[in-house]
Amino acid sequence: MTPDQAEQVSATPAFFLAGGTGISAETLGNMILGQFPTVSFQTRKIPFIKSVEQARQVVALVDAAKTDAVTPLVFSTVADEEIRAELMKTVCAFIDLFGSHLDMVERVLHVNAAHDVGSVHGIADQRAYEARMKAIDYSMEHDDGQSLRALEQADLILVAPSRCGKTPTSMYLAIQHGLKVANYPLVEEDFESSDLPRPIRPYADRIFGLLSTPQRLSQVRSERRPGSRYATLAQCSYELRRAEALYATHRIPSVSSANMSVEEIAAVILQNLDQRPRS
């Protein structure tokens, strides 16, 4: 038996079930699984469970993964009551991420829920959906300083030395939160002055800086350009030092992306945006 096969045998199966895309089930389920770092999990997402018959097939699939040594975990955000009732017949550990909380909200509001997954992930609010699509288009156009057009429309301008996480953070904020995000790379010419780069200078009230550690940045850059001056520890240290000084001079809030997920970085940025006055 290979090491990979041994790991699969010992891993606890975890299923994410949903009537829609499964994004919520996967996100919430992984948040819970993340609290058990010493346990190995083998995860699988099963989205678009639309009928009782499909639910029966899913239960058969899930139950087949149960052994005397391991009990699979099943995380569900299925909203339909009939389908959910069928899924709950599994002999595995069923964690209902939707139903129990929905019942509580119904009691508090004295209103029955629609039990419609479309109200969660569908295009129920057309204007909000269109705004999010525009935010994604904007963020793609303004990735890595490719375009300086309409910067005044940006909700946020991310600045950082190369490979500090500007692009994934920008896209996450656009996709998940509908923010128009421009990101601007700090290059060596920008470090020759204590001023903000000219194109973004008028928008200091919406700038947020990213940093990293020299070791982490050097590692990431080495994967892209191994053996280059760009990836040396000395160059990474210099750029990060100058970037941090620039942020301090202009009171630009910042966070290090070295040991944070994109979700965590985004949460810090959103909290800061809520607290900052805009001119």
Q: Can you put this structure into words, describing what you see?
A:
This is Putative phosphoenolpyruvate synthase regulatory protein. Keywords: Kinase, Nucleotide-binding, Serine/threonine-protein kinase, Transferase. Bifunctional serine/threonine kinase and phosphorylase involved in the regulation of the phosphoenolpyruvate synthase (PEPS) by catalyzing its phosphorylation/dephosphorylation. One of its GO terms (molecular function) is protein serine/threonine kinase activity. It catalyses: [pyruvate, water dikinase] + ADP = [pyruvate, water dikinase]-phosphate + AMP + H(+); [pyruvate, water dikinase]-phosphate + phosphate + H(+) = [pyruvate, water dikinase] + diphosphate. The chain has 279 residues and is of the alpha/beta class. It has two domains: 9-121, Rossmann fold; 126-275, Rossmann fold (3-Layer(aba) Sandwich). The protein is 44% helix and 14% strand. It contains eleven helices and eight strands. It has helices spanning 3-10, 23-33, 52-63, 81-87, 99-109, 118-121, 126-141, 166-177, 214-224, 233-249, 262-275; strands at 12-17, 41-46, 73-76, 93-96, 156-161, 181-186, 207-211, 254-256. The strands form two sheets. The chain has a four-stranded parallel β-sheet. Strands 6-5-7-8 form a four-stranded parallel β-sheet, sandwiched between helices. Helix 3 (52-63) packs parallel to helix 4 (81-87) and helix 7 (126-141) packs antiparallel against helix 8. The protein is elongated.
